[in-house]
Every structure is written in structure tokens, then in C-alpha cells.
Amino acid sequence: MKKLILIFLCCSFMVFTANAQRYITKTGHIKFYSDSPLEKIEAHNRQVKAIIDVATGDFIFTVLMKSFEFPKALMQEHFNENYVESDKFPNATFLGKVTNIKDLNVAKEGTYEVTVEGKLTIHGVTRFVKEQGTFEVQSNKLNGKAKFNLFLADYGIKVPGAVTNNISKTIEITVEVALDKFN
């Protein structure tokens, strides 16, 4: 499966044109947070791979689900085995675009509002998403940030009745990526 992911990423990167202005990271950060009446759950993943072509707006993410770290080992085990089924669905991916890429001036430092849309695949389910975020241009880096909510049911993730009050049906996702210029 790892070879398939590597081939997918290589092919995806080849789609970008030879003269493209690309920015890349292998150490992006995604945090998710669930706030329910009985329990707050937070996990972090700092092995997020992302690439953006600022000429076309093409934007790709891949996230290894087993790389999410929880404060309690049992939470991590339940997340991987019972909810996202990481052995069966090892990655989450996003294939999309920054739709207002023309508003992003990588030659001028500053913070730019962006709209990102595309296909997000989690737990083997692909859905169209459209979210707002920012890119900060700083010293040949693009620092991207976004915060949005996902419904577990939209991605076929079921919460057993015994713990339904422990896990929110809506999960807050925070994305932070520091992308370096890649040529």
C-alpha cells in the first residue's frame, strides 16, 4: 500500500508543469478536536505532505492516518481500529485547487485570503469540500492555515452507541503547513 501511495504522489507531482512555481512540505500539521459533553478529544499529525503550484492553484495533501497522536494510547487505538480503520484506509487525501490563486502574490510578503475547493477522501469516502483559509508569504515560504468542521457521518465513520456521548458528531479540523519553494 505504501508503494501505491508513493506512486500516486509521484504521478500527482508530475502533473505540475516544468516551469511551475511549486511549494512543498512533508511536515505539515493537522489537528482535530472533538468537544462533547463527556470528553474532549484532540489529536495531532505532523507528517502531512502537501504541494501547491502557485501558477495553476493545484493543491494536493496526503495524510497517514496512523500518524495522529493522542494524549491517551487507548484513544489512539480506538481511532485507528474502530473509527477510521487505518489498516483498511491508511490515508486521507485532498486533491483540489486554490480557486482565487491570482490573488496570491508570492513576490510580495503578506497574508492573503484564499478559497480552496476539491475532493477530500477520508475512510474511503470522497466528498467535495470548499473552505476558506490564508497563505502568508514570508521569506520564500508559504504558510497556510485553515480551520473547518467535518461531520463524521459524511465520511462513513460510525460512533458506537455506547460512546455516542463521548465523541462529537462534528470534528474541528485545523490545518497548518509551512511550504518551502521547490524547483
Give a brief outline of the structure.
The chain has 183 residues and is mainly beta. It contains two helices and eight strands. It has an eight-stranded antiparallel β-barrel with strand order 1-2-3-4-5-6-7-8.
Descriptive report:
- This protein has helices at about 1-15, 75-85; strands at about 20-35, 40-55, 60-65, 90-100, 110-120, 125-140, 140-150, 170-180.
- Helix content is about 15%, strand content about 50%.
- By secondary structure, it is mainly β.
For the structure shown, list the relevant keywords.
51% strand, eight-stranded antiparallel β-barrel, mainly beta, elongated, Lipocalin, 2 helices, 183 residues
Set out the fold topology.
Layout: H1 2-15, E1 22-35, E2 40-53, E3 58-64, H2 73-83, E4 91-98, E5 110-122, E6 125-138, E7 141-151, E8 170-182
Antiparallel strand pairs: 1-2, 1-8, 2-3, 3-4, 4-5, 5-6, 6-7, 7-8
Tell me the distance between the termini: 28 Å
Major beta sheet, strand line-up: 1-2-3-4-5-6-7-8
* Stretches with pLDDT under 50, minimum 5 residues: 13-19
Care to count the β-strands?
8
Radius of gyration, in Å, reads 17 Å
The level of helicity is 10-25%
Q: In terms of structural class, how would the helical and strand content be classed?
A: mainly beta
Helical segment tally?
Answer: 2
Mean pLDDT metric: 88
CATH topology: Lipocalin
The CATH superfamily appears as Lipid/polyisoprenoid-binding, YceI-like
The major beta sheet can be summarized as: 8 strands, antiparallel, barrel
CATH architecture: Beta Barrel
SSE sequence, one letter per element: HEEEHEEEEE
Beta-strand content bin: over 45%
Number of domains: 1
Specify the overall morphology.
elongated
The top level CATH class name: Mainly Beta
